Amino acid sequence: MTDASATAARRPGEQALTALGLGARALDPADASPHAFPGGGRWRTEIPSCEGPEALAVVLDEAARLDVPIHRISQGSGVWMLTDAEITEMAGASAARGIELCLFTGPRGTWDTGGSVRSDSRGAGLRARGHDAVAGCVEDAVRATELGVRCLLVADEGVLWTLHRARTTGLIPADTTLKVSALIGPVNPASYAVFERLGADSVNVPSDLTLDHLTEIRRVSGAPMDMYIEAPDDLGGYVRMYEVAELIRRGAPLYLKFGLSKAPGIYPYGHHLRELTLATARERVRRGRLALDLLARHGAAGDMAPLGSRLPGPLHRFPTGA
């Protein structure tokens, strides 16, 4: 059932434009998503591109300073770019604060020897090329979960299905959540539903989807959605802060993902990128504060899911039997 506040939020400039005779048409209640996170709440937050323990510490300190609630922190370079000690430290620091830590599985097509991803067509993208790449992703998943990580980021449909089967058979913990990368994110309701059935617990859609696209997806799937409120330049650089309340109304349950445009890439991370990585980590939290302030001004900040919540609720899956 849709929370009443999801349809009552004020739109940007509403009073002033109405006074000038330029008021917008009334919102259609049928556009509102009927879905929510288990336990209540229509939105959660995510800070991406947190590439190691030092960056994580910066994010946690800045979030405390600016009073930015965080449900999930994600990393983009990959499990294989972190030592066991670094993973353990990140998992412990996140768990202590009730934050879900999500690490990327690899290898991925953009970093291996395949040439198609560097062609004009960008063929194959980040997908896992061949059996050995799938095996590497599975090894990353097993290693990360043994060290306490309970969320894995994937960029390949086959890896997603394999890891979903792995958790149903106990090869990785059953409460491990699987997150689909924006780099293979679905752009229509049919493909979104397929990702849900392959095992996705949250799906990062591209940030250029329209509000109507979100409504179309929500009519076929209640799987949590991730969306960059501000996207990195290699994902379009879109800044959609003034749409946050309506993105939630249309797309709930929704992770508000605070990326950063006009910033150099940092994947794969190493110490040579330390100063840039720490500075951009700090600014992503600040961008989160700006978006949350907008939500508050528009009267739509009251539907946040409880901090510490991470599971997606019941979802539709393909049968995993042979």
How are the elements arranged and paired?
Layout: H1 5-8, H2 14-19, E1 43-47, H3 53-66, E2 72-74, H4 84-96, E3 100-104, H5 130-146, E4 151-154, H6 157-168, E5 177-180, H7 189-198, E6 202-204, H8 211-218, E7 225-230, H9 244-251, E8 254-258, H10 274-297
Please supply descriptive tags for the structure shown above.
8-stranded parallel barrel, 322 residues, 8 strands, disordered N terminus
Describe it for me?
- It is a single chain.
- By secondary structure, the chain is α/β, with parallel strands linked by helices.
- The protein is 36% helix and 11% strand.
- It contains ten helices and eight strands.
- It has helices at residues 5-8, 14-19, 53-66, 84-96, 130-146, 157-168, 189-198, 211-218, 244-251, 274-297; strands spanning 43-47, 72-74, 100-104, 151-154, 177-180, 202-204, 225-230, 254-258.
- It has an eight-stranded parallel beta barrel with strand order 1-2-3-4-5-6-7-8, surrounded by six helices.
- The two termini are 37 Å apart.
